[in-house]
Amino acid sequence: MASYLPILLQSISIQDGKLVILILYVDNLFITSVHLEKIQWLKCQLQKRFEMTNLGDVSHYLKIEFIYLKKRIFMTQKNYTIRMLEQFRMSNYNPSSTPMVEKIKITNRHGLSTC
């Protein structure tokens, strides 16, 4: 069995003042830009040289969910977080906005208040 090290390759290109981002991780290739014609051009160039399959817009990758709304893309790990809480039997715990005691008075090593 061949072993390999996953590599993240990121390329940012500006052609004619138009930004195109290409990300390669293992055997997954992501191309993004607000300029669709540049994405199409780059895909055509890559398909001339490599065998590729277009799977469309990414919906989940590396436990990150991508949500497309109008002109925005949201990335969330909500489902992953819920599964982790369930796995460690913490799903019934009450959420806290901060993991430490609130309104604590901090003093320096001389006992003087820092506020």
What is the fold's blueprint, element by element?
Blueprint: E1 8-15, E2 18-25, E3 28-32, H1 36-49, E4 60-61, E5 64-69, E6 72-76, H2 78-87
Antiparallel strand pairs: 1-2, 2-3, 4-5, 5-6
Question: How would you characterize this protein structure?
Answer:
The chain has 115 residues and is of the alpha+beta class. It folds into two domains: 1-55, no CATH class; 57-93, no CATH class. The chain is 21% helix and 30% strand. It is built from two helices and six strands; from the N terminus they run βββαβββα. The chain has helices spanning 36-49, 78-87, and strands at residues 8-15, 18-25, 28-32, 60-61, 64-69, 72-76. It has a three-stranded antiparallel β-sheet, with helices on one face. Strand 1 and strand 2 form a beta hairpin. The protein is elongated and about 65 Å long.
Structural class: alpha+beta
Number of helices: 2
Backbone CA Rg: 23 Å
Helix content: 10-25%
* Residue runs with pLDDT of under 50 for 5 or more positions: none
Average pLDDT across residues? 81
The coarse overall form would be elongated
H/E element order: EEEHEEEH
Please give the number of β-strands. 6
Number of domains: 2
Distance between the termini: 61 Å
